[in-house]
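re the bet — no i am not wrong, look at it urself. input seq straight from the record:
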Amino acid sequence: MLDDRGFDLWAGVYDRDVRESDERNEYPFAGYRKLMMTMDQRIREHGGRRILDLGVGTGFLSKILYDDGYSITGIDFSREMLAMARERMPRGLFIEADLTQGLPSKLRGEVFDLAISTYALHHFDQAGKLRLIRDLVPLLDPKGLILIGDIAFADRASLDLCRESTDEWDDGEDYLVFEEIRPHLLDYRPQFETISHTAGILALQLSPEGK
């Protein structure tokens, strides 16, 4: 698993590496573009315009939204990736922070319609994922939506099958397994959509009245 320096070094070729993995339909990024387009669709269906992007990286998804007038706040621990995101979205707000240490204090008092994260939370164990999700709730509008797109699986059997099918598996990462995390998130009406054999989207709705 890469640290912030590793991601800084990867930043220049990250988008290319992701695209090539997706095109080969291989772990870890098989289904990447479909996942991003599905996330984009879900965000637009919700209707909110204020976006908090956790692990914004180079800003692939947020840039699409930004170009259509969405307000973007992005957090990442890679200075180089944030520099690329800032260049793409000069009117966005970007914060350099390590989310494993909690949400940055600069977010206090802010309110967002959606919190999104793509290919970031596999750096957290399940307890860390749950802690971050719960910390997000006070920052969201009562009808807010959390969308997490990542290397993720509906059940443990699907994860095991993926692991057996590849020679490259990162044991330092902790992939979301919906059947295991779902019981801890029932207050937020958890839903999971499988995107590929390596990717899925977890959706959490704060209010039953939300869209």
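see?? The beta strands are 50-54, 71-76, 93-96, 112-118, 140-153, 176-177, 191-194, 199-205. told u. also The first helix runs from residue 4 to 23. so pay up
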